[in-house]
Amino acid sequence: MKTINIIRDFEDKDLVIDSLEEIDERYFHINGLCPISLKEDVLSIALTESFSNLRLIENIKKTLQKKTRLFKTDSDQMISLKKDIFSSLTSKKKIELNTFSEHSCIAPIAENLALFTGGLSEIVKTVNRIIIQGYRENATDIHIQNMKDSVIVRYRIDGLLYDSIHFNTNMYEKLITRFKVMSRLDIAETRLPQSGRTTVRIDDKAINLRVSTLPTRTGEKISLRFLYGTHDLLSIKDLGMNKDQIDSFANHMSVGKGIFIIGGPTGTGKTTTLYSILQKLNDGSKNIITLEDPAEIEIGCGITQVQVNNSFGISFSEGIRAILRHDPDIIFIGEIRDRTSAQAAFEAALTGHLVLTTVHMPTIPDIVERLYQLEIDPLNITSSVIGVGTQRLVRKLCTGCSQKIKPSSTAKRFFADFELNIEYDFSATGCAACNNRGYKGRTGIFDNRYIDDENLISYFMNRGKNIKRKDKYIELAKESFNAIHKGITNSEEIIRSLW
Ligand SMILES: [Zn+2]
């Protein structure tokens, strides 16, 4: 019969706490054992004389794929050993995650599970928790980065980054490997940026994620982006436009030809707005083709989405010309970036198509000025443009905790510059419903002008130049003022997002 093979009595020097961070010590604890070091493939374990469960030791070897070395302790020594290990490991791990129900585990994905047997399953659990927490908090992105002495996980929620989890750097490389395997990236490649996708299942819902790596001085950084599906797209009514804005939008789009250009800084929801418009226009009677870089969200049945791919020769301008040979009614062009793509977009609009596109410019006069800089024929501009819009995305106050307050002097000054007199404001107090952030969800602030708008006509006449800063922002400021007035957001959020 096999017996437990004790090496010798435990000595203090045998204990290497730092090496144990991947071990789930609780498992040992409940089974009357104590892990004391993990060196390469050898796990050292302390046990008392009374321990006789040989099968448990065999199990540990098999599960963790490690050899074991066993050391004898007396029961007093065992108690103090456990206390040392557990207190220092728990404080070191610092993993503070919400509790997840058992059902919220991520479903198996096609992957090489053999890489993650045994002790590494803690890594798998950590990766799952990182993703689930992001999903639960409606994060759009998750950033995981090695900051020299700790690994930090940050979530982008309602447009802002929040620090969430810090843990020991020893886990980092394995975490990266796990993410790479999930998204079928080359695990051996650490010097080049990589990008892939994975699908996980949370609460019976398939969630698509884009996983990107970036080599940095402190190792590879991982960024995850939640890629939402058709069902997550907003209807035009939910964007934050008021009724007049929606009606005038629908009226001008119904002409069915010309170009509508929407501007605003990065991350202000330009694409979301145009996607919801496309969905509204997609009544089955029109051929809608998009050209995007990248085409991440499936917009809907019957809409053809084309991805820009410069290495295969599909640039924005070449893509537009190719699309025109497919008899489109409506073309969505992800972004006008340069002269050739701008000219191709205007040519498409001139030949009787409805073109929707975005440009990275903050205000309407800036967008107009940009069109002239891109050397679009002035006659084409005035004969093709249906409208120009700009938008901002602001966080909405949590209805559970926001309170009416007197406006600050900063808020008064800010609105006074636009000849607006703010009488009251709202605090973002914070409560359990909003995770103490004071805000929950976002809404758009819009300034849309159509070709029958006198201001827009005068901007075209001036080629967008010589417009005072105050005048460029006045409409966004008025819309923001109304949003505060209705208690949707507050001045702090407006001042942060307007410029
Ligand atoms: Zn709240």
Task: Describe this protein's structure.
The protein folds into three domains: 6-93, GMP Synthetase, Chain A, domain 3 (2-Layer Sandwich); 102-227, Beta-Lactamase (2-Layer Sandwich); 232-498, P-loop containing nucleotide triphosphate hydrolases (Rossmann fold, 3-Layer(aba) Sandwich). The protein contains 15 helices and 19 strands. The chain has helices spanning 25-30, 54-64, 75-93, 121-136, 172-182, 243-253, 270-281, 316-324, 339-350, 364-373, 378-384, 409-416, 454-461, 469-485, 491-498; strands at 6-9, 34-39, 42-48, 67-73, 139-146, 151-157, 160-167, 194-202, 205-216, 219-227, 258-263, 288-292, 303-307, 330-333, 354-358, 385-397, 403-405, 425-427, 439-450. Helix 4 (121-136) crosses helix 5 and helix 8 (316-324) runs parallel beside helix 9 (339-350). The longest helix has 19 residues, at 75-93. Residues 398, 400-401, 430-431, 433-434, 438 line the site of zinc ion (ZN).
